[in-house]
Amino acid sequence: MLTDLRVKNLAIIEDLNLVFDEGLIVITGETGAGKTLLVEALELVLGGKAEPFMVGSRGESCFVEGTFMPSPDAISYIRDMGFETALEDGYITLSREINRTGRNRAYICGRTVGMGTAIDAGELLVDLHGQHEHQSLFKQKNQQAYFDSFGGPELVELKKNYTIHFKRYKDLTVQLKQKIENMREGQRLLERYYYEKKEIEAADLKVGEEEELKNEQAILTNYSQFNELLELSREIMSSDDSEQGVLDKMRVLLKNFESLEHIDERLTTAKKNIQDALFLLMEVNDITKKSLEGYNFDPNRLEEMNLRLSKIYDLKRKYGESEAEILDYLMKINEAIVALENIDQSIQKDQDELSAEMEVSILLAGKISKKRFEIKADFEKKVSLELEKLALKRAVFEARIQPVEKTEDPQYLTSDGLESVELFISTNPGEELKPLNKIISGGELSRLMMALKVALSSQKLAVSCLIFDEIDSGIGGETAFSVGGKLFELSRSGQVICITHLPQIACFADHHFVVDKTVEDNKTKVNVRKITADEVIAEIARMLSGEEAITSAIEHARELVKVAADKKLYK
After folding, report:
1. Looking at the DSSP assignment, which residues form a beta bridge with residue 6?
2. Residue of 122, 361, 415, 521 with fewest CB within 10 Å of its CB?
3. Is pTM, for the whole model, over 0.85?
4. Per CATH, the architecture of 1-126+463-531 is what?
């Protein structure tokens, strides 16, 4: 169950801290008071979509946090996630932080988690029925999901295992088809790969070789000018004439300053600079000599380099933009050659695995099918009974199981197994059963959703909190009173939170919260407070009259609360 909800700077909610108890919790308030914001806060806690515009004007971010007393299944999930120590006090917190840049984070027990993890945890803690969720019943896939949920943990586990094997079966089918197509082209590909492998390996490439060859090529191509300039530089440095070489002159200069510094200490710095310069020039001279000795012009060597570079350029044009890319391509074609040479064995292995997965998938699909037919009558009976209690006494309800067409090709298997399930209903005597989207009204659809929730409540082992946002859409009067009674009945086995506009539902509340808006310092803010028994009468009277409670509305409110209290005694 949800024990606490904290909301800070979400739209016009400044800072709310709400504490919830067990039973039926009703939240009411005038249209536009901010009830929807509470639902949005809960949706965010449970991993719902976050948008930057949700952040209020009182800061750069908003924060929402729900504290839950978890069910055994939720505890097991959280422990498996490594939150063992966080469960010591028996509670779980789910939090969400959103900033104006659109960045948002989710937390479980204060630890950052991925959004998928937060959503999975939320689904084990809360079943939130939003304003438009009943519209989802028009989709056959959703109808089938509700039906299968009635099968309890046995059917859930069967479907889980089936999904794993069916997905593997479909993946193998695609993989095998691709391999068979590859085999048909295998010989042509092998011949091409053999040729490319031979060409690249014969070249004996080295990473960085091109750059080295281009440097040497530049030197040999311009050898005359290169050699002439180096020789001239060497002569300037150390001429045979001891009076002409720069080095010899620098040595004389250094010797002179070594003598002068004894006379004028200010020349010591100058002497040191000359000494440093001499060392640098000596190093330059050594490099010049080595360069002259290292290169001897050889026309044959230049031709060899040009041919080698031409070969490298040819390989780059075919296989990659650098030696590294060419060698990487060689590694890939070696792997491809091995795969193609062994494709027969690989295909056989996939065919064997595919056959095994197909057998398991068909076996599991058969068990799922059997379970569906077993629960069909009981499902229809329970939903019909609940519809009768919700003022649809003459409704005829059917879960129609339609087997898929079987062929010799096992592709007839679907992601849902061997059949599809669609809900049919007739709400008036004499009318034939039709799909929901053909005949059902908004009010009838809301009641059908409620009937499904009640029928499935015994199977919802993991969720101990049900939240309904305006389940009262399209209903009123006695029907609304029946829905209120059903919500109260649901709350006996788990916490139920209901946002409603109808007094016939609000009168069943164990705990009643009112939402309103105020303006402070030219800023609108939302307030939520739990009201007392006397305030409950006033609030229900307001809901009845649509204005400040008048005497007749107050009396009517008291009567509603009394009738609801009497009805509670029989639940």
Report:
1. 17, 65
2. 521
3. no
4. 3-Layer(aba) Sandwich (3.40)
